[in-house]
UniProtKB/TrEMBL annotation, chain A:
<dbReference type="InterPro" id="IPR003439">
    <property type="entry name" value="ABC_transporter-like_ATP-bd"/>
</dbReference>
<protein>
    <submittedName>
        <fullName>Peptide/nickel transport system ATP-binding protein</fullName>
    </submittedName>
</protein>
<feature type="domain" description="ABC transporter">
    <location>
        <begin position="22"/>
        <end position="273"/>
    </location>
</feature>
<dbReference type="InterPro" id="IPR013563">
    <property type="entry name" value="Oligopep_ABC_C"/>
</dbReference>
<keyword id="KW-1003">Cell membrane</keyword>
<dbReference type="Pfam" id="PF00005">
    <property type="entry name" value="ABC_tran"/>
</dbReference>
<keyword id="KW-0813">Transport</keyword>
<dbReference type="GO" id="GO:0005524">
    <property type="term" value="F:ATP binding"/>
</dbReference>
<dbReference type="Pfam" id="PF08352">
    <property type="entry name" value="oligo_HPY"/>
</dbReference>
From TrEMBL, chain B:
<dbReference type="GO" id="GO:0015833">
    <property type="term" value="P:peptide transport"/>
</dbReference>
<feature type="compositionally biased region" description="Polar residues">
    <location>
        <begin position="1"/>
        <end position="11"/>
    </location>
</feature>
<dbReference type="InterPro" id="IPR003439">
    <property type="entry name" value="ABC_transporter-like_ATP-bd"/>
</dbReference>
<dbReference type="GO" id="GO:0016887">
    <property type="term" value="F:ATP hydrolysis activity"/>
</dbReference>
<feature type="region of interest" description="Disordered">
    <location>
        <begin position="1"/>
        <end position="38"/>
    </location>
</feature>
<dbReference type="InterPro" id="IPR050319">
    <property type="entry name" value="ABC_transp_ATP-bind"/>
</dbReference>
<dbReference type="GO" id="GO:0055085">
    <property type="term" value="P:transmembrane transport"/>
</dbReference>
<dbReference type="InterPro" id="IPR017871">
    <property type="entry name" value="ABC_transporter-like_CS"/>
</dbReference>
<comment type="similarity">
    <text>Belongs to the ABC transporter superfamily.</text>
</comment>
Length: 367, 443
């Protein structure tokens, strides 16, 4: 594998860069298909600062993975049209050449995938795969250094007897240990940005808790910016500082975890909250699904893309919902809280209609 | 094969089918039925109140319901063979090792635990996809464990299964009509010319468009495929449904649709569920009674309020504390949790005594020596732990010594006869062992 080592000066520039480490502006990703272009992500804007965690939630097909793969530069330039701007530590990565991209990927930004068994090569030893990730970005390092680093990282992520397990193959690890090994691989070059795509979805709750603890400890230690992609709102509540809710390729609500989960102002977010049961909720709480299915991105609905499934659109005057795409505007609870909805009094609707059904025990508190 | 007149088309297209249809699964307009087949999107003109009405609250417990299925000391050991020409059996995977429980009529029992704890094996034993190594499963006066395949066939109508993955559990080369209709032909319940009619009724019950019977599974979304799997399981009017992770492969918003559908089916047709899942919140919503498994054994079983409100087994407590909680957003940060170290031990060579002791913070000498019995400690609550107690209030000395005839270190006391009266029956006794007084008490 060839690599373009980062020069010392550019690495220093990255670290001293002012403002949020990752800035995504007006991102649009389109895939041409036989049936026409599919716009998987459009008009997406967000930023993540160092030491902060952004949670991205949404159903499958909402564009959450596509957008983060665009950040990592993992889309094939031949099959994906990317426009807008993605700046990682001040470096614009949209349109960056593959060789420069390689210098960034795995070095200043890394990704953890959902299925660790599929993401690790079954034919190579865990240690070998970790060493490769290190050597690619440290061309002056010897193999012995790389091995020492691999053992050190396995130890950091809590794998017992790392000096022996380093020579194991992925199938000899349990599910939780494989996920740890992949986290070790992602962190081996101390990246400033870590993207975790459903890092715990395939795991048991006890293992999930271990992995989330580990991610938080490592974030504190390395002060990295973290993006967690998940559909588990519980994970979001415990991990994320800011939350981005995506639907049909667009951001529909954005705010701090507290704003989004305690005073959401977009019917889709209400739908997500009402369709998951909670281990501590009252047993009188109803489980209210979002009716229908996510739309096809080949021919997205006109106007607000959520309107065909929205049960509150009758509260909007005329047929605004089906004709005009709502802007992403500040919500009533704070300027940092943005929502994309035509409803005039979302807070009132949420408190008087939605909350009594999904969390009857909370109604008293919020009044 | 006898014809059961009652079994004929009991399921009428009911209101619930119509309701589900209204919510949009059948709002098939020409614009949406494009290349993506039946990925229907619209909801029509529903308002929130109507949709909320169709959402269900958690299922309530019926304490007087008789047991429809009674499992006693069920065991399943899978042989481990050596490599080479002569493949000798060199050990056994003790996947399920002596579990007892009852499934109430028209009710649901939840089975939770980490992967590898034997919960799916239990489901497959009850549907007799495996023949158990030992124990009994009493269903309508017959022991399912003892029947051979021929004797089992008429009973297979009554015990059906819903699988986890709607992508691999439907044959991609068969139409929906063939998939849902196959059980009818195998069991020769309705004449051939009426199979289609019955299939369409079933599709309507699960909220699919009955006209889609000639489509193939690939034309449906994940949630709709799961509905097809549910329709197939309902075809023969089963009395017990084993649902093995029925929603874990689905998107969040679709999970709630399927859970509501299962609740509709339960009230409509009085089906009993053995609900196997690792998502503790879904199980809490669907099942008024829950059994927690660890490494092939039930460690705690009881009603919802007890298991989720005041669990007594350290493993149940750890499991519950690990679940991320949405309400945490109001407070910020992570919840305090009990950290379990390491992985689940191998079921080929499980730890002696209590199987959880290697990861338990309360483990003492007695835990390695004596296996804790599944002891009834409340009206509807059983726990298998020498130091059973509420979180933060675990007793300092073992609670089981008097019953087992051992001292605090687990060594047998001469002359003390163990009283094994209520240790392993499938249901609950009228009297139980009170942890505070360490005496047997009753209502």
């Amino acid at each position: 594998m060839t690599s373009v080592p980062m020069t010392q000066s550019s690495a220093a520039e990255r670290d001293q860069h002012e403002g949020p480490f990752l800035q995504v502006e007006n991102l649009k990703v389109t895939f041409p298909t036989q049936d026409g272009p599919v716009t998987a992500v459009s008009g997406l804007t967000y930023s993540v600062e160092k030491g902060k965690t952004l949670g991205i939630v949404g159903e499958s097909g909402s564009g959450k993975s596509v957008s983060s793969m665009a950040v990592m530069g993992l889309h094939d330039a031949k099959s994906a049209q990317i426009s807008g701007s993605i700046r990682v530590g001040g470096t614009e990565v949209v349109g960056l050449s593959e060789s420069h991209m390689r210098g960034l990927r795995g070095n200043s930004m890394a990704m953890i995938f959902q299925d660790a068994l599929a993401a690790l090569h079954p034919f190579y030893k865990i240690g070998g795969q970790l060493e490769e990730a290190y050597l690619v970005h440290h061309s002056s390092a010897s193999k012995r250094d790389a091995r020492r680093k691999a053992i050190e990282m396995l130890d950091r992520v809590g794998i017992p007897q790392p000096d022996r397990r380093v020579d194991d193959f992925p199938h000899q690890f349990s599910g939780g240990m494989r996920q740890r090994a992949m986290i070790a691989m992602g962190l081996i070059n101390d990246p400033s940005l870590l993207i975790a795509d459903e890092p715990t979805t395939a795991l048991d709750v006890t293992v999930q808790a271990q992995i989330l603890d580990l991610l938080q400890d490592l974030q504190r230690e390395f002060n990295s910016a973290v993006i967690i992609i998940t559909h588990d709102l519980g994970v979001i509540a415990e991990m994320a500082d800011d939350v981005l809710v995506m639907y049909a390729g667009r951001c529909v609500e954005y705010g701090t975890a507290k704003q989004i989960l305690t005073s959401p102002e977009m019917p889709y977010t209400w739908g997500l909250l009402s369709s998951i049961p909670d281990v501590t909720a009252s047993t009188d709480a109803r489980l209210i699904p979002i009716p229908g299915n996510p739309p096809s991105l080949l021919r997205p609905p006109p106007g607000c893309s959520f309107h065909p499934r929205c049960v509150h659109s009758s509260k909007v005057a005329g047929d605004l919902c089906s004709t005009e795409l709502p802007e992403l505007l500040p919500a009533s609870s704070g300027t940092a809280h943005l929502k994309r909805c035509h409803l005039t009094d979302p807070v009132g609707v949420y408190r008087s209609e939605v909350l009594p059904e999904i969390a009857p025990e909370l109604v008293e508190e919020t009044r | 094969m006898t014809q059961d007149p009652n079994a004929q088309a009991q399921i009428e297209p009911t209101e619930l089918g119509a309701n589900a249809a209204e919510t949009g699964d059948r709002q098939l307009t020409d614009e949406t039925s494009d290349a993506y087949g039946s990925h229907e999107v619209g909801v029509g003109n529903l308002d929130f109140a109507t949709v909320a009405e169709m959402g269900h609250t958690a299922t309530q417990l019926d304490p007087l319901a008789p047991a429809v299925l009674s499992v006693d000391n069920l065991k399943m050991y899978f042989p481990v063979k050596s490599s080479g020409v002569v493949r000798r059996t060199i050990g056994h995977v003790q996947a399920v090792d002596g579990i007892s429980f009852e499934v109430p009529k028209g009710g649901s029992l939840g089975l939770v635990g980490e992967s590898g704890c034997g919960k799916s094996t239990t489901g497959r034993l009850i549907t007799r996809l495996y023949k158990p190594t030992g124990g009994s499963m009493m269903f309508e006066g017959q022991d399912l464990a003892q029947l051979n395949n021929k004797q089992m066939k008429p009973l297979r109508r009554d015990v059906q299964m819903i699988f986890q993955d709607p992508y691999t559990s439907l044959n991609p080369r068969h139409t929906v009509g063939a998939i849902v209709g196959a059980p009818l032909e195998v069991h020769k319940i309705v004449p051939k010319n009426q199979v289609l009619k019955r299939v369409q009724e079933l599709l309507e019950v699960v909220g699919l468009n009955p006209e889609h019977y000639n489509r193939y599974p690939n034309e449906f979304s994940g949630g709709q495929r799961q509905r097809i799997g549910i329709a197939r399981a309902l075809t023969l009017n089963p009395k017990v449904l084993v649902a093995d992770e029925p929603v874990s492969a689905l998107d969040v918003s679709i999970q709630a649709q399927v859970v509501n559908l299962l609740q509709d089916i339960q009230t409509e047709f009085d089906v009993s569920f053995l609900f196997i899942a690792h998502d503790l919140a879904i199980v809490r919503h669907f099942c008024p009674e829950i059994a927690v498994m660890y490494l092939g054994k039930i460690v705690e079983i009881g009603d919802r309020e007890t298991i989720y409100g005041r669990p007594h087994h350290p493993y149940t407590q750890a499991l519950l504390s690990a679940v991320p909680d949405v309400k945490q957003a109001a407070i910020g940060g992570r919840r305090e949790r009990i950290r379990l170290e390491g992985d689940v031990p191998s079921p080929i060579n499980p730890p002696s005594g209590c199987r959880f002791r290697t990861r338990c913070q309360f483990a003492q000498e007695i835990c390695a020596k004596v296996e804790p019995p599944l002891l009834q400690i409340g009206q509807r609550h059983k726990v298998a732990c020498h130091f059973a107690g509420e979180l933060g209030a675990h007793p300092a000395t073992p609670v089981t010594t008097a019953l087992l005839g051992v001292d605090d270190q687990g060594s047998p006391v001469s002359g003390a006869a163990p009283t094994n009266t209520q240790l392993t029956i499938p249901g609950y006794e009228e009297t139980w062992y009170d942890l505070k007084t360490r005496q047997t008490t009753g209502v």
